[in-house]
Amino acid sequence: MKNRIIRRDFLKTTGAVALAFPGLSNWAGLNWLAPDRSDQAPKRLVIMFSPNGMVRDGFWPKTEGPDFEMDSVLKPLESFRDKTLLVHGVCNQIRGDGDNHMRGMSCLLTGNELFKGNIQGGSDRPAGWAKGISIDQEIKQHLQSVDASRTRFGTLEYGVRVPDKADPWTRMCYAGPNQPVAPISNPYRMFEKMYGKMKDRENLLSVLGDVQKEIERSKTAVDVRDLKLLDSHGRFVEQMDDDLKTSASDRMDYHVAPLRLPANVVDTNDNMPELAKIQIDLLVNGFANDLNRIATLQFTQSVGGARMRWLDVDQGHHSLSHDPDNKEDSQDKLRRINTWYCEQMAYLCKRLEATKEPGTDRSMLDNTLVVWTNELGHGNSHTLDNLPMLMVGGGFGFEMGRFTKVERVSTTRLWLAIAHAMGHRLDSFGLADLCKEGPIKL
Amino acid sequence: MFWSLRCFGQLGKPDHAMRLSPPFCCSDIILSIVLLCAIGLCSDAFAIQDIGKNIYTAQCASCHGQAGEGHPDHFADPLYGDLSLDQLRQLIVDTMPEEDPEQCVGDEAAAVAKYVFESFYSRDAQKKLNAARIELSRLTVPQYRRSVAELIGSFGRDGMVREERGIEGDYFAARRKTANRRLAKQIDETIDFGTGVPHFDPTGKYEALNIKKKKGENKMNDGFSVYWDGGLIPSESGNHQVVVQSKNGFRLWVNDAESALIDRQVRSDEVLDHSATIYLLAGRVYTLKLEMFAYPDPPAKIRLLWKPPGKPLGLIPPTAFVRHGASEVAVVSNDFPADDASFGYERGVDVSRQWDSAATAAAIDVANWVAKRVWRLARTRATDTDATERVRQFCRQFTERAFVTSLSNEDLHFYVGQHFEKELPIEDQVKRVVIMTLKSPRFLYPALEKRNKDDELARRMALALWDSLPDRRLYDLADRKKLSKPAVLASELKRMVRDPRSKQKLHSFFSYWLKTDKASNATKDKQAFPGFDEALVADLKESLFLYLDGVVWSETSDFRDLFLADYLVVNRRIADFYELGQEEGEEGFYKIRIDSEQRAGILTHPYLMTGFAYHKDSSPIHRGVFVAKSLLGRRLRQPPDDVKPLSEEFNPKMTTRERVAHQTRETACMNCHSVINPLGFSLENYDAVGRFRTEEKKKPIDVSSVYNTPDGEKVELNGARDLAEFLANNKTAQRSFIQQLFNHYAKQSLDAYGDGQLDKIHQRFVENEFNIQKLLVDISLMFIEHE
């Protein structure tokens, strides 16, 4: 961290950036680029969400311990068996206003109730936003408060096909009570957020030479008494050009190049696989440049109705999830859908595994905990019990490589345990009553 | 503030002694000249010129500079002004040289006066010395902001500004728009539902609709929703705070029809006020949509308010709503350094580092904005096979419209083609075109471009009347070479003059001409003026501009009515405070006739009288200076900095007029105050908040005075009505108005457009019976048709 501060002061005193562009001083975001040499084992967290509950057969193994079955939905993760921890028995015990999909979503990561409000689902009482901060944002605040773990963004919220509306079914991240955080579903928007300032510089730099030429050319067409004006104009453009070039070569580079996005991938249902891949690539790319230590990856929304035609599933996911367990065709489709989600998880893990932690030879996966969860335990019963909780990664002290069952443990205790594992020693998280027994031991 | 002729300095300055030893004294020179003349060496005229010059060089130049330019150590202000030759002579007799005014009197003073007057002091002399020219100028900051908005706007739907005001509301007895549950579709003047006097009562309509009740449900249980949709047209430029007061679910869109400015669909708390800030340009139409639903718990209540810059928070008035919105435009909202206004109007004659940085930041913002919406702007979709080609076409049009010209093939490659040759995402290609275009001198300096005649007309018309780029109609006419047809040109100018964009430009002129900023933050003595508050000040400003609009946009549009009209535009608050008549049932502003002996047009408008006044007292000096400089175009020196007005304690029995007269009685002061005071005294019937009064300190108000014109004419004035009559019919005042209007519109000096132009326009002004709208057209024509 020290290096970074010195560099920033240097830029300030020489005026290379800050003074040259008073109107553009917010470009200083580039100062966050350097990976932190003093923090060689940063801890990273990804929370991945998929909707509508989990199919029981094919997901939950029959055997506890290290030799649990991974032959159906979990098959894509088989090569990560040693780094996988699957927990059965974690329950969202938040009650109060709102239907189960709503509470399943907005109370999942907050461990807190919903405010009274005007949004009604099913026949339950209407409700508003969650009353508390979500665990990803809570840990982010902690990481950002410490020099060694502070990054430019702290957290980035990725979405894939999250509909463009804001309600308790579409928001799982909260910066605080009544403060839902919208995920960014459009990869180009996300890219702009991550690298936009740098792109602005590149684009500007690419035209400044031509602008100077134009100003020179204009001089031949004006009264000599007007030359002064064009002269000084030309000088400022030239100066900006010089300053940008100097500061561009002077600044510390990205650890890895910003991802090159494929052109014009439109945000449509059928493009979901491609969108998912880009978002995952971006997520890993952002980690590799240490823009953030925490990420969430939200597929659609609770009640999400993606039609996975690429799996030969024409119905929407949500309506399929209502079918009874004995309807084998639907069960099969739900298995296929969730296997696809598992593939996304596996792709993410592979990308993390193949990426080096900035400045080290270690695999990034070892420094990361990836959690995959859902707003419901099971689709047709709408239960908030036994939510799928699957973790892959370095573990941070959890005993990985096994499937374990616990007896009805509140989500809040799991989040507390993850906060501790990430170095944030909170006493309690979410509703205090549900967190009395402290972090779950895994 | 206090005015006097400082040119005669003050005794006791450290350098004073040095200046006391002239090489000759006046009488020596006179003696020798007289001798020369006596032996017939020169003609009289030559002699006088020469005598004057010699005296000036020997006696005056050490302080005033060889050509009256001033001297930094002695008397810094340059020697020019608008006293008549005789007034100047008298001044010299009375005050020069300052150490002994007796030294230069009689013929000597006359000779010096003549020399000074003809060589550099008078307006004509100055004109000869500094031949005005049309300077190269960049877009001013307001022009830049407007041009960008217009440029983007030209790719979308224009806001239709018709006379009908208000906004359309669509009411439903359901949570969402449901055709068979429509309660009403109507025009609402304001958005203020369910809180005050209801202009619409949904409960009655429910019965009429005969909506079937489900068992055990009340009739509102399906909810209630309203969809307002229309346009918003602000009258100020700057950051507007928009506030929605409601505990129901709602969403509000302004300008951007895709992402809501305030999204409160989810009601999750009991907060009533929800606000957001947005930068808006005066005279542009923006889309405004507000949808509200009350579910599951009526009652429904919602109000839409705003706080425009410099005004208090209030309901958005009916005048700010128009029936149709316009396509979203990019709004440049970052800060720019202020433009040079040293000539009294904003000009783009300097470029600073801050300006360049700000313009760059703006260009990047616009580039990002455009790239984000490129498919809509280019009227294509990413999936279309010819998408790239269409985006290129859009880029070409973007640049051509920014420069108001057609690009040559070479140019096309330079501004567009080269970026598309690079392997870049299409967004970056577009961004580069936009940044390069907006940073190009061809956009920033409108006069650089060599255009064909029609394009040049379009460019200048938009600049003159709107401070902007042409709208699509103008581009089209120029493309089809129609604009150069006199009839088309004339009808377009007429259309443009009446457009809201031109109305806002005229507002900014009026603000400058009438120095309305003086009153905007006025605070007054609470004891002397109970009830005079911020809200009243804001209403007064509104009242003044409604009055100005009323005159300008009337049939006759008569300049003289600005001074002579015998009505005010007021609302209830103003009528109460100033004890004017009430109009029954009037909610907003209305015209009210007033005693023409008591008030006269803008001259006595309480907003101006408030601005040109102190905390508790009127200020004849401020008022006099305003009339002299702004309305009569007289040149006055800057006042000395260190003079404070005599306070009431000086002599509690003295009236304001008496105190001013006492303090400015010195000869040196009177050189300016003989102009200022009579004008100011004639407005003494108006106290510090512009209320009419007939006495002060138990003495009757004395408004009688004599004003000396630069031509040496003496005008007897007996109060505001006399002054108004004088100003309305005075050629100097009319010419001053024309000149200032031209400067403001063209952002160039009228003198630069050739000798006699002012005479010509004034002549037309007289012929057109002082029609301001026609004057605007004439002024624009002068700017537009100048070679």
Largest interface comes to: A-B, 54 and 53 residues
End-to-end Cα distance of chain B, whole Å, is 43 Å
How far is the N terminus from the C terminus of chain A? Answer: 33 Å
Strand fraction of chain B equals 5-15%
Alpha carbon gyration radius of chain A: 25 Å
Counting structural domains of chain A, the number is 1
Residue runs with pLDDT of under 50 for 5 or more positions of chain B: 1-43, 204-220
* Assembly annotation: heterodimer
**Count of folded domains of chain B:** 5
Count of helical stretches of chain A: 9
CATH class of chain A: Alpha Beta
Helix content of chain A: 25-40%
Major sheet size, sense and barrel closure of chain B: 7 strands, antiparallel
The chain-level mean pLDDT of chain A equals 87
How would you portray this structure in words?
The complex is a heterodimer of chains A (442) and B (787). By secondary structure, chain A is an alpha/beta fold. Chain A has a single domain (44-186, 267-435), classed as Alkaline Phosphatase, subunit A. Chain A has helices at residues 2-14, 100-106, 135-145, 187-219, 227-250, 272-288, 317-321, 328-354, 411-421; strands at 44-49, 84-91, 114-119, 127-130, 154-160, 173-174, 180-181, 292-299, 368-373, 389-393, 402-410. Chain A has a seven-stranded mixed beta sheet, with helices on both faces. In chain A, a hairpin with a 7-residue loop joins strand 3 (114-119) and strand 4 (127-130). In chain A, helix 4 runs antiparallel to helix 5. By secondary structure, chain B is an alpha+beta fold. Chain B folds into five domains: 7-129, Cytochrome Bc1 Complex, Chain D, domain 2; 167-322, Toxin - Anthrax Protective Antigen,domain 1 (Toxin - Anthrax Protective Antigen, domain 1, Alpha-Beta Complex), CATH 3.90.182; 353-502, no CATH class; 510-729, no CATH class; 733-785. Chain B is 43% helix and 11% strand. Chains A and B meet through strand 3, strand 4, helix 4 and helix 5 of A and helix 8 and helix 12 of B.
